[in-house]
Fold:
Amino acid sequence: MYGAGSIGCYVGGRLAATQAEVVLVGRERLAGELGEHGLRVTDLHGNDLRVEHVDFQTKPAAAADSDLVLVTVKSAATEEVARQLAPLIRPDAVVISFQNGLSNADVLRRHLSQPVLAGMVPFNVVHREAGWFHQGSEGDLEVAADDALKAYLGVFAAAGLPLVQHDDMDAVLWAKLLLNLNNPVNALSGLPLKAELSQRDYRRCLAMAQREALSVGAAAGRTAAKLSPVPPALIPRMLGLPDVAFRILAQSVVAIDPLARSSMWEDLEAGRPTEIDWINGEVVRLGADHGVPTPVNEQLVELVREAEQGGRRDWTGAELLRLLRAR
Structure:
């Protein structure tokens, strides 16, 4: 797991807890934390697994002998990571990008001769306490279909993280981006995901951002895969339903426990730069390229950048909706 933060520690922990040989590569801070407390991974279904002795390394060379390299760094670091890995990893290694955004696998391919597959993590992971990482929403790991994965399918299935393969991974990544447009809304609300999504005004903010993105996608020739029972084009309409109706319908679409938070909220909470430029910023860039206005996503990008500098992170749904509508 290269870039083992919340996602990397959770996925790596699930694999290690079921006897896979896993090396986590990340920052000194987490190396010390896991060295002292071990690694605990839990989920919304009640699974609670512990790895007492974690192989957590801080140097890139730790990836040199790996058969499979799962890249989970933030998108801003992808180029640097690709350069680090290029002279190190084995020629027969397989690389999967489990990152947000649309183009991280392409960035890795520019520097690596090994097979690089695009992947997607649909669920949220919260760093609850020292050494403890919790999956707060449901979903399976999605990855581009490739024969190189055959040797690993059983390992991931045994860990409770089956790899779902797709022939059209670009459509999956675009669908994930549409869902991730909620990350800034959640981060700016200061609320857990379930509490935020239970309020119609916040959902209307997300629906506005998604409608812009769907218009951009139509102009850019991008089609979103159907990752839930509700087609992507209908999700904005569902988000606008009254709270009671939405709650009933949402229960059949995706399970979210009260602990779930967006990764963007977690980044702001820790004082780290967010991935806003690779989420809503992607919509803004594509919109500019294809002549589609994106004022809602532009405003969300601006608000998150302000929050990164200490700006507001306690917007009510009514306040945020009023601002986005004015924009």
Q: What stands out?
A: Residues 140 and 161 are 6 Å apart (CA to CA). The first helix runs from residue 6 to 17.
